[in-house]
Amino acid sequence: MPELPEVEVVRAGIHDHFVGRRISHATVRHPRAVRRHVGAPIEALLQGVTITGTARRGKYLWLQLDCDDALLVHLGMSGQVLVLAEGHLPAVHERVRLEFDDGGGALSFVDQRTFGHLLVDEGGAQLPAPIAHIARDPFDPEFAIEDVVTRIRRRHTGIKRALLDQSVVSGIGNIYADEALWAARLHGERLTDRLSRAQIRGVLQAAEQVMREALAQGGTSFDALYVNVNGASGYFDRSLNAYGQRDRPCSRCGTPIVRQQFMNRSSYSCPRCQRRSRATN
User: Fold this and answer.
1) Selected catalytic residue, list 197, 248, 265, 272
2) What is the mean pLDDT of the chain?
3) In a shared domain, residues 235 and 201
4) Active site (annotated) includes residue 2
5) What is the pLDDT of residue 224?
6) CA angle 33, 39, 40 (to 5 degrees)
7) Count of domains forming the chain
8) Of 56, 57, 59, 95, catalytic
9) Is there a single domain that holds both residue 8 and residue 127?
10) 260 lies in some domain
């Protein structure tokens, strides 16, 4: 699933190509793409409105509209927002298309697995109601790291679980959690209430740093399912130190990286640099 850097790359692309343009027509090609939308049809709500800005919180992005509404976008596992030439035939997995009255490129929402979705939140231009419960992410100017450290230390859970909890800190997914933990030399099963404030602060700072590095390289692409609005892949997968590196030598100590099952997914770590604590309960 795209994480903060990948979603930010897409948001920036949307901002560059579509802000200031007026939607002439919206077409929903698959009902699952708007399954979480309630109220009047999206096609009617979007016709004739102008995109005035874009915003993001964690893994969600939204288009701010001149009527003070928001078009909220969640990419899910395979969602893509692409710029297509006017009149371009829809892709096989195109779910929604927005066309504009200036005759320029259209916005195409493509989603092979249909786990992503779009919805219009009336009056939600500043912060859509469906994601108001999501915590601020490390790129947010109002992200209060010391408050987050306090919240994490009050819990009795593994540090990786805490990093993935979007109600505590948003935007960090499996890839960047593993990379941040590797950078901070912490095993993901270390208990949060037994870590020092400095250790938790360090892993949060590492998460921000690794995500900024990923953003500079266009995000992490393992296949063609994540691309930017022009269809280009990111290259941060070449810089990963832990995630997906099973049996490869740790770039810090040379010990082979190990893979473990974690919450129906995988965790990658260095058994030497990231030792488990004896007490995990």
Assistant:
1) 265
2) 94
3) yes
4) yes
5) 66
6) 85
7) 2
8) 59
9) yes
10) no
Burial 158-193 (b: 16+ CB within 10 A, else e): bbbbbbbbbebbbbbbbbbbbbbbbbbbbbbbbbbe
Please tell me the distance from the alpha carbon of residue 274 to that of residue 269, in angstroms, as a whole number.
Answer: 7
Residues 95 and 169 in one domain: no
Asked if 189 contacts 158 with a C-beta cutoff of 8 angstroms, the reply is yes
Say how far apart CA 101 and CA 262 lie, in whole Å.
48
Closest CA to 216 of 60, 74, 59, 6: 6
* pLDDT score of 91: 85
Is 279's pLDDT higher than 60?
no
Give the end of a domain, one of 77, 104, 131: 131
The CA distance from 127 to 147, in Å, is 21
**276 tagged catalytic:** no
Q: What CATH number should be reported for the domain holding residue 214?
A: 1.10.8.50
pLDDT of residue 235: 77
> Coil, helix or strand for 204?
helix
pLDDT 10s digits, 72-105: 999 998 999 999 987 788 889 999 999 999 988 9
* Structural domain boundaries enclosing 162: 145-241
Mean pLDDT of 155-162: 97
The domain that contains 61 carries what CATH number? 3.20.190.10
For residue 221, what are the CA distances in angstroms to 1, 27, 191, 235? 10, 28, 31, 6
Quote the pTM value.
Answer: 0.93
pLDDT higher than threshold 90 for residue 110:
yes
In a domain, 34, yes or no: yes
- Asked if the structure places residue 96 within a domain, the reply is yes
Instruction: Please give the pLDDT value at position 47.
Output: 97
Nearest to 4 by CA among 266, 233, 212: 212
Taking the C-alpha atoms of residue 205 and residue 220, their distance in angstroms, rounded to an integer, is 19
Ranges 35-49, 88-102, 117-131: which has the least confidence: 88-102
